[in-house]
Each structure stands twice: as structure tokens, then as C-alpha cells.
Amino acid sequence: MSERDPHIRVCFYTSSSSWTNHQRWPYEMGRALFDRGHTVEILANPHGRLYAKGKRYGMIVKKFKKRGFMPADILKLARRLKRDQITTLFVNYPPDVKTGALAARIAGVKNVVYRRGTVSSVRENIINRWILNRYITTVITNSDANRIWMLRSKSHMYRPESTRVIYNGLRVTGQRAASSNYHDYRNNGELMVGVMTGDVHPSRFLTLFELIRRERKDDAAHFRFLIHGNGQLIRSLKHKLKRNPELQKMLVWDSCSRNLVEFMNSIDVFVTGNTSNGFNHPLMYAMARYKPVIAYNEGSNPEIIRNNETGYLLNKGDVQGVKEKLDLLRNRDLRMRLGKEARRRLEQQFNVEQSIDQMEALLQ
């Protein structure tokens, strides 16, 4: 949209106080539309990060806290939407769907978008079904795997014609995206394999290490695994590795990387065990840094990875297959070829500017 319609006024509404689950997306998408010249308003809990960050960025940010009595909350929100002449309302927190959709109806807001993420979904009941089918204009989700699951498992809640995919694109320009900062954890030129905590089950992780160590005694010297993050995987691995110092030598805990860009800069190959239907966002960071990826052929992974072109897709639980692909990727020319193709696919299919274009189209 080269010329912004002054009558288009966008509102992102969330009563959640969770930044990671329900506030980050409204902030990032609101900021993107604001940067493109749209009038953007955020209604949020005054004690959350969304409220503070939106204010600092210069967007219109207003306090809105539910009172706990739905009719009063609906009327309060409806008055706000009508007074501010909102034309499109975005809701991405499931408990806000009823309040937001009914308030928009009262206020005359004809365009109501529900963004269904991966953390939680709207409860199945006759009222929510009625609201989703009657008052929600568009439902968006972040992967085709998620969309298919929604339409198959909750066919009475979501309509195919109004449910669409808008990927969580990645910005490939800017200071952080272009950062070359990295940390060299190699001892002797090993293939550095990146893994994120929570992505791989500890038992499969240990099986992979054992395969590498046992098949050929010198194999272990060719690989090193960089573990990024914290949580249960770290604790479980450290506990199980106490009795196996040889396997411990193959691992290093990433204590230096400040973000995923630095982590991906520090590895040669990225391996993920994530098979959820939600968009596997870390794959984007790997592809942006020209890294080939290895994943299971489930969830959103087949949408992102092209087998044998940008990385490898394996059957779930095929640890032997992971080992074999890692052997292949010791070849630097192969890594470079797959990595360049991964970057090209990211720029063509998962660039954040394309996602913003698709969001803009919903405002018409």
C-alpha cells in the first residue's frame, strides 16, 4: 500500500501479561505496521512489557485491564473502540476472543482478526464456536501444519475459507541480522553441531553421542556439540554424563552467545528435534546464517526445509540417520551449497517483509 488510507485505524488488544506468549507478536507486528505509516493503537495491561515498549517506540498505547465481569468488560472495550474509530481489531490471546469480538460488534468494527499461535487455543464450546464463525473475520496461524491440525481436529470451530497462514518471517537486514559475532568452541577443527535445549529428547541425544563414539573410535574427534539455552535438557544431560567423561568431551555449553544470531554464527550445522505444528522459528536463524539443518519430517519442518536442498528431513527418532547426515556434512563444499540454498529460500519464502505485506492486506 503506497498511500495509507487515513480511515484505517488498527488496534492490537491483549489482556495477557505474558511477553513471550501473547505480547511479543502484537508489539512486533504493531511496530511494523506503524513503521509503514499506519495508525496503530495498543490496548494492554499497564504492568506488562508491551505497554512500556510500545510507549517508548512512539505508538499509541492505552491502559486496559479487565474487571472480571464480562458484560462490563465488553461495554468498556466497545466504547474505547468506537471512540478511537478502530477499523481492524487484532486479538491473539484466547481468553480475549469473546470480549474482543463482541465489543467489536457493538462498536461497529467489521474486521476482527484472531491470531491463533501455538501456546493455547480457544476452548471448544457452543458460544466460542458461534463467535468464531460469526464475528471473527479472519483466523491466522503461523504454519500450514497448524492450520491443517486446526481444521481437522476442530472443524466446527474454524472455517477453511477464513483460516490462513502468515509465517513468522525473519528480518534479514539490520545490525543484528548482519552481525558476524561468533564464539569459537572448537578444540581442533571439529564439525560444530548446534542444538537448542528443549529441541531434542535427552535419551536420543545420548544415543546419538554413543553412535558417534562407538562406530569408529576416531569419530568422536570430528564432532563437537554446542548446546544453547537452559532448562530440563541441560540438567538431564549433565546428570547422565557424570559417569561418562568421554561423551562429556563432545559437548560444550554455550555460555557466551547473547542471541540466536551469535549462536548460529558459532556452528556449522543445526540439528533440531522439534516436531510441533507451530512454526519452528530457530530454523530461520540457522538458514539466515547459511547453515544446513537436520530435522524430522514432521510438524512445520517440511514447510521450511527442502530435503537434500537446504538440509535433511528424517523419520522421527531416526538417530542413525542424523549420524549419517552429520558424516556427510563434514564436507565443507556440501555445507556451503546447502547453506546458500537455505539462505535463498529464507529470503524468498520467509522474509518478514512478506509477512507484513500479508498483514497489510488484511486491513483493506
Any overview of this molecule?
The protein folds into two domains: 9-165, Glycogen Phosphorylase B (Rossmann fold, 3-Layer(aba) Sandwich); 191-349, Rossmann fold (3-Layer(aba) Sandwich), CATH 3.40.50. The protein is 42% helix and 16% strand. The chain has 15 helices and 13 strands. The protein has helices at 19-35, 49-57, 70-83, 97-107, 126-134, 144-153, 202-215, 232-241, 245-248, 260-265, 282-288, 301-304, 319-328, 332-349, 352-361; strands spanning 9-14, 39-44, 60-63, 88-91, 111-116, 138-141, 163-165, 191-196, 223-228, 251-253, 269-271, 293-296, 311-314. The strands form two sheets. The chain has a seven-stranded parallel β-sheet with strand order 3-2-1-4-5-6-7, sandwiched between helices. Strands 10-9-8-11-12-13 form a six-stranded parallel β-sheet, sandwiched between helices. α3 (70-83) crosses α4 (97-107). The radius of gyration is 23 Å and the shape is elongated.
- Give me the CATH superfamily of the largest domain: Glycogen Phosphorylase B
- Protein structure class: alpha/beta
Number of strands: 13
C-alpha-based Rg, rounded? 23 Å
N-to-C span: 10 Å
Quote the beta fraction.
Answer: 15-25%
Low-confidence stretches: none
The largest pleated sheet is described as:
7 strands, parallel
Number of helices: 15
Outline: elongated
State the helical fraction. Answer: 40-55%
Tell me, what is the CATH class of the largest domain? Alpha Beta
Strand order of the largest sheet: 3-2-1-4-5-6-7
Mean pLDDT: 88
**Count of discrete structural domains:** 2
H-E order:
EHEHEHEHEHEHEEHEHHEHEHEHEHHH
**CATH level 3 topology of the largest domain:** Rossmann fold
CATH architecture annotation of the largest domain: 3-Layer(aba) Sandwich
